[in-house]
Amino acid sequence: MISKGLLKYIRSLQIKKYRLLHQAFTVEGEKSVVELLQSGFEVETVLVTESFQQKHTHLLQKGFTLHIVTAEDLAKAGSMESNNAALAVAKMRPSHAYSWPENDLVLALDEVRDPGNLGTIIRIADWYGLKDIFLSENSADFYNQKVIAATMGSFTRITPHYVDLLQFLEKRPQNTQVYGAALQGENVHRLSLLPQGVLIMGNEAHGIRQEIMELVTKPVHIPGRGGAESLNVGTATAILLDNFYRSL
Amino acid sequence: MISKGLLKYIRSLQIKKYRLLHQAFTVEGEKSVVELLQSGFEVETVLVTESFQQKHTHLLQKGFTLHIVTAEDLAKAGSMESNNAALAVAKMRPSHAYSWPENDLVLALDEVRDPGNLGTIIRIADWYGLKDIFLSENSADFYNQKVIAATMGSFTRITPHYVDLLQFLEKRPQNTQVYGAALQGENVHRLSLLPQGVLIMGNEAHGIRQEIMELVTKPVHIPGRGGAESLNVGTATAILLDNFYRSL
Question: Where is each tRNA/rRNA methyltransferase SpoU type domain found (chains A, B) (predicted)?
Answer without folding.
Answer: 105-241
